[in-house]
Amino acid sequence: MRKLSAAIIAAVSAMIASCTPTPPEATPTGTLPSIYPDYTGVTMPRNICPPNFMIKQECDRAWAIVSGSSGYSFSTYSSNGKIILDPKSWQKAIEESDSIAISIITEKDGQRAKYSDFAIYISSCIDPYLTYRRIEPGYEHYTEMGIYQRCLQSYDERAIIDNSLTNHGCMNCHSFCKQDAGKFLFHLRAEYGATYIVDHGNIEKLNTKTKNAISNFVYPYWHPDGRYVAFSTNNTQQIFHACDPNRIEVFDHESDVVVYDVENHKALAPALLSSKNDMETFPTFSPDGKTLYFCSARNQGTMPDSCKKVRYNLMKISFEAGNGSFGGKVDTVINAEKIHKSISLPRISPDGRWMVFVMMDYGTFSIWHQEADLYLMDLATGEYSNITTINSPRPESYHSFSSNGEWMVLASRRDDGLYTRPYITHIDENGRFSKPFVLPQRDPEYYAVCLKSFNIPELSKNAVEISQYEISNAAQNMEAINVK
Amino acid sequence: MENRIKAAIQHLPWAVFAIVAVLNLALGKFNLCYMEQWQTFIYDANIAGERIAEMNGANYLLSLLIIQFFTDPYLAILINAAVLSCIYLLQRDFLMRISQHSVLISNTLPLITVGMVLAMQYNTNLFYTYTTGILMASLLLWISSLINNEWGRLAFMAASTPLLILAAGPVATAYMAIATLSGIRAGNRIYYLGLPLVFLISCAAFIHAGYAMNLVQILSLRQYADIRITPSLMSYECLIAMVVSAFLAMMARKWRLDGNAWLCVGIVAVSVGIGFVQRNRNNEIFKELNYLSRHQQYGRIIELCAQNNSNVLFHNYRNMALGEMGLLGDSLFSYPNMGLASIIMQSDKSYFMKAMYCDAQYAMGNIAAAQQYAFESLQMTRNTSPKMLMRLAETNIAFGELDAARKYLHILSKTLAYSHQANEMISMIDSGQIYQYGNLAEKRSCMPAHDSAMGFPDMDKILELSLEANPANSKTMQYLGSLYLLEKNMERFRQVVQKFYGTPCLPKLPRYFEEAMYLIHSGNADSLAKYHIDSQMEPAGNYKKYYLTRLAQ
Fold first, then answer.
1. Chain B closest CA to A179's CA: distance in Å?
2. Contacts of A306 in chain B (CB under 8 A)
3. pTM score, two decimals?
4. Nearest residue in B to A143, CA atom
5. Which of A102, A244, B88, B152 suits B288 as a labelling partner, its CA being 20 to 30 A distant?
């Protein structure tokens, strides 16, 4: 049905494009147009779909002239302020260009205005698929949610699993092994509660609550060789603020980190990662698989009274994949507590050069923290700094790298402070990030009416092979393997 | 007799329209209005496109298209009568063909379906999709009756069965059963297995394509209800009635049913009777209270609730009306109360109770809690509740989160009934004058100066913080004092009265605050004098009675 409607819209767009009036002459304003989403001055991958946008200035008609640096140009016309770019022309314009100049002309009450051109810079290709969980930025109950995969070269989206197929249970924490969608995992909660590991078509359903564990497996990260997955186990609660702009606080009463051995169905839980006095969470393997990074905070006592005192440091421990053993000591990478900050979600670029993490005033669940920003650490020098080019006054949180390390997607609430959107940014070899842009949609008004958040944006090199039916079938009929 | 009935039957469609309208009025005229506050049509291709791609999506959108006009109770009744009359006419024409023009039976049998749909609209918490689903199935049956070629009809039914499964879900079962019976009656043997096979193959294909998790989900009327509700077996009676009606119509000639005028009179009587059966009259009163609360007719709410004390929900509505009128301290114990739940019930998982909780919290000035429950109620109604969208806009404005408020208003601006109000509010946000709109300045002033973790047991703490931030907020003060009085927490009551007495929120003690302070300080002339309470006063004693009764329990 979705493909059919896409085809109809494409046909109608093509018809409209064929009768597009030629852009007229107009008086230059000398200012940039105000557009939503803001694509001015951003860097985009060469394989991205057209970034359709709306002109914020009131107008009766509008024209956009798109000119590639290679010389190819095309124009489009709009009678409602929405600029919908023809996908084929867009592809032609960007395929050999380093940059695109977009010129906007508007007409209001017979008066025409030509705005200054804005540029979109074109760089290398990005992994063509983006997977996210779409859900209301919820409180305690939920109704509709799902994990979806979007093709970045087009606007096509498919459900990996929608909760209408799992009796409306919760689902979360999808994670790919080295951006390979053939090998991934996610959790289902409630009626079909289990961790599901999908390995090139084979599904394994796991009961991950072991005897001594705090909880089922929660936040995952794959070891690069695919044999292990590091998870946190958390006793989590959320509370509501009476008048704080953060609205909600999610915190742990206790948490540990374990490493799951995929082949032997066994959880490795070293004492150094399950201290009674500390809370360990958000594990991440280095790309060479020899180091396990995680966040750790001192347990401050009764929660939620002391939740504003809880601050997580960035830690690391060595790991030997051959025999699944850990180093004898934990090292502190950043003592965030000392500077009255808290760290979450460390992620390392595939070349092992950079680490990006979230830093906020306190706590662990950054998406509800208005002050949460992304920081970049040079792993060679240990220096880190705020990535001002990609942060906003509102929360920036979950982020993931592309397989070539040149792109990063991040979850941001910069639009309205409440609904999370996936933004994409380019990183150059010196660790400089470009101005991020929101994932383009066919209808540029999409985000303005969408009352769901895009959580855990994860890039992948390929599409998920398995169907919703197979996952739903496994959830309903498969026996879970008990993790030892 | 028979001829007279046949002549009278000519006017039956009009009679159906009139009777449905009268029954709607008699059974509860606010029922359809009540539906509207949870669902409305949003004129946006993204939202509609997402819905139409789901099983039962087209039916859901059709129901929203109709529901958007249910803002006025009388208009809603007229539209509903027209929809049910359409179902009647479509089914009548179809039955006429399959009964080989047995006029009496074809005119009367569809009345049973109409009666049952009407009854279901009142009794089972089903959305309007139940009605529109039957409308869609009736329309397809009617179209099939226009096709004279037997193979052409078979092709149409085979094609429309999967379409109906996708567009309207479980009603397709009845459609397939009726189509099969009519084909068999026409003597075409392929129908014996043909359509059931098409049905099952289609279901399997839809399950494989990810439209449903299993066959039970496709057949279940749960698709027509809030996902937390499992519809009773009774809800299926209408689908069964459709099939039985079709069967009787087919057998009309053979069994000489058409000549039996008394049978037809009996069917009419049963149909009206079914439509009139009410299983829970109380629901309709709450729908009326809800409507009155939405339109701020607080005096009428107090009147209605004064006659009904059987349920704390009545107390909730009454006390909310008293609170909004600033009369809580003076009138709370003039009526029966049953503890804290008489002001605010702890919310359950239903969207309507969450909305009720949200209303009470908003009235007392606990904006963050009102926002939380508005949010939960909205997402449980698939983000189509205009009431909750507006409440979220209001609470976000009260918070000062204008970008989030603008988002909810932008969605409301895409509705038929609320676009004007939403656009007006958006332009006031843009011009910086939004706090001059309605009571938004008052609600903004309720925001506490300091943060605190929020939960049901902490409600009083939040209200106290709110009063500290805005000592002129007398409504919040009355709520705070009333919460303690209902809980019989005399010490905390004494403390807050002592803290705020003489400030703008409590310049003098309302009647029941005075009674309670008299109870606390009885015999202590100095303390009574401090609060200007006559030490010789003999209070009317309503609070004393409540206090003692509760203690005795």
1. 25
2. none
3. 0.92
4. B380
5. B88
